[in-house]
Amino acid sequence: MTKRLLVFSVATILRLSVGPNLGAQTPAAQAFEVASVKPSNPNPDPSNPLSMIALMLPQPGGRFTATNTPLRMLIMVAYELKQDAQLAGGPPDLLTAKYDITARAAGSGALAMKELPQLLRSLLADRFKLKTHTEARELPLYDLVLARSDGRLGPDMKPSTSDCSNADRVAAEQGAALAKGDVASFVGKPRPCSVSTDTSGGPLNLMMRGDGQEMKQVVEILTQFTGRAVRDKTGLTGRYDFAMKMDLQMVLALAQRMGASIPSAAAANIPQSDGSSLMTALSEQLGLKLESVRAPVDVVVIDSVEAPAPD
Fold first, then answer.
1. Which end of the chain, N or C, is surrounded by fewer C-beta atoms within 10 Å?
2. CB 64 within 8 A of CB 57
3. What is the pLDDT of residues 258-267, one digit of tens each?
């Protein structure tokens, strides 16, 4: 496992999780006009990063692609779930099965991330015969708050000057480039209004850099790394630039949870990082902290689901 692939895996995974407006309200009764659903290749090419990671991307022309994507991940994105415990039931073998999807929605414009949940719900109901109901259950969460009593942010988090008024269009263009295999443009090169990673954090670390990110995107990132839903209680508005050092063990754990076909830290012989823990990095670098709480949360319970019929 090369560091280049690790960096690319993180950038790709976070490309989904911090896409603009993923958690926004979506119009009702949307469905893809056409969709192809096929099992993923069980023997991906290890020399091709795109063949080894779970990847979902909106693209120009109303198109959407998913590769190597577990059914569980598709359901969680469709229902906008923030942590694994919010999805219950269903056959484990089917939920971990990976699929490739190519679909197109009505219209010729770029497919915005905010449209994706309802489109995926319709697809899952049609092709996977998915039926669910929702229950309220008490789960552990995190509240994101300011770490300092005087409200000052850390040295690596500052108000952004980037113009992100066209963030949806930028995301669609980046998605189209990534789908064509343009890996280099996403690694080691900070881009406006996006999240990127590079190796400047040292041999056992990666640097995650956010440009023009709202707190809801920071919350999405922290939700992925902690495995718990995170609520924004900072009171911060506007967009921010930030930089945070991450150790490779944490990166590998995230990539595995998101469906990437990569080994564990022990199997990859990745030693302990010389960097700080997530909690310490948040406090010292960004001036934020996570407080553990419990609260009622909506849980989606799978009543029935089937493997899709071949195309």
1. C
2. yes
3. 656 555 555 5
